Amino acid sequence: MSVVCSDGGEVQGGVVATAATPLAAETAIDVLTSGGTAFDAAIAAALVECVELPMKCGLAGDVVALVQRRDGPLETLISIGPGASGHCVGELEIVGPRSVGVPGAPGGYSELASLGRRSLAELAAPAIELAKKGPIWTPIAQQLTREAETVLRRYNGSIRYLPGDQAPEVGKRLPLPGLASVIEDFVLEGPRLFSGALGDRLRDRLGENCLLGRDDLLKGTALWCEPACIELADARLMATPAPTHGPGLLEAFRLASAGSAPRDAVRQAPPRFDSGTSVLTAADTEGNAVVLVHSNSFPNYGAGIVIEELDLVLNNRPGRGFNLTVPKGHPNAPAFGRVPETTLHAWALEHDGRRYFGATPGGRNQLPWNLQTILVLLRSGSLNTAVTEPRWGYGAEVGGFDIEGDHPDASTSSERIVAPHSLRSAEQIITRSLSGGLWKAAADPRIGSVASSG
């Protein structure tokens, strides 16, 4: 169980949690213990995750974050690439050259990095070194690669993500020197990473099917805004606002608090169907805290297109926002300049004198898993229980749910029953008293998430 501390105690120093990437957590702790802030730790860890989980997050993707600067108000950062000049109904495809959208991650990472005290070169150094040396391929990375093999072969020649035309072997290093060079360019260019030569290289890779104009890659994507909020008699829940799925979480929470069964509450919340996400959280002794949700893919390896010599996985905007089946006037219909709705979101709960921050990967299951976590915290306040209690989530059938076999509802439900701890939840929680003090942290053990203190 990846729980930093027992429910009865707090930890000295800062805390971090990462999804299935222990090295990212170690990197963040190193930054914190050497005097960096939570924002420094989060960016260093996020760039390491881009190397360890390139099928889920990366510099061609998006960033959503919930931020607390010391004892200031909660803020949200949304850096999602808007629709490009060629994005319109009838033009986009789910994967392939005609699915690639404007990257939002460089703007988002740069904004968060600007809140810290370390240089971007210092923060990127661990990820650059890891890419050159090669990340050790994990079981979840291999599984996600195998799920995407058909798409990767369809749109690429020889790529390092399929060495010898096979999924990388678990436990072996996979050097990604091209990705190291891209991160080095990010250190120099920051939010303008794709505004010059790299953007031209991206458009050349897509060829005549490219829907991105050169000017599309010059626009800023990062936006700071207030969180959405709902207040009850004994609790206050805040979340990243639209176009994230935070408002959907608040609506499901309102319905559940009013007496609806949690699964019924989730069914009534506005649906989202994209996926391909990683999450990390960090907090420091100064009181800074950040939950960073970053995504590059739906479901794995984005568009299925890699700029081979750069090991750069390109995003696919449809499925990660734009919906190809809705009418032209729908908020998620492809359109130039439109920022699409997305499942990405993070939340903060105030209850019983504490503030909890949290999020999980999981595509459309982010909302049900976050809701279940919040309801456990309201019921018991136990971090251990919140990240390990049996879960349910959307299943393969439309409108249906999968329920882990040790869940209390499993014996009486008509929903599909799956093995205990088999859902890909990776919930992370950090918390401390509203009056300040030390932190607690916990991470869901289902796919190897890690929570650490330093």
Task: Report what the structure shows.
The longest helix is centred in the first third of the chain and has 17 residues, at 139-155. It contains eleven helices and 19 strands. Strands 1-18-17-13-12-7-6 form a seven-stranded antiparallel beta sheet. Strand 3 (62-68) and strand 4 (74-79) form a beta hairpin. It is α+β, with helices and mostly antiparallel strands and 454 residues long.
Q: What does this entry show, briefly?
A:
It is built from eleven helices and 19 strands. The protein has helices at residues 22-33, 38-52, 105-113, 120-133, 139-155, 177-189, 197-206, 246-257, 262-268, 366-380, 383-388; strands at 2-3, 15-18, 62-68, 74-79, 222-225, 228-231, 235-239, 277-283, 289-295, 306-307, 312-313, 347-351, 354-359, 392-394, 401-404, 416-418, 428-433, 436-443, 450-453.
- Total helical elements: 11
Q: Tell me what portion of residues adopts beta-strand conformation.
A: 15-25%
**Poorly predicted ranges:** 1-6
Helix content: 25-40%
**Backbone structural class:** alpha+beta
Encode the helix/strand succession as letters.
EEHHEEHHHHHEEEHHEEEEEEHHEEEEEE
Mean pLDDT: 92
Shape: globular
How would you write the strand order of the largest sheet?
1-18-17-13-12-7-6
User: How many beta-strand runs?
Assistant: 19
Mind describing the biggest β-sheet?
7 strands, antiparallel
Assembly type of the shown chains? single chain
Structural Rg: 20 Å
Distance between the termini: 18 Å
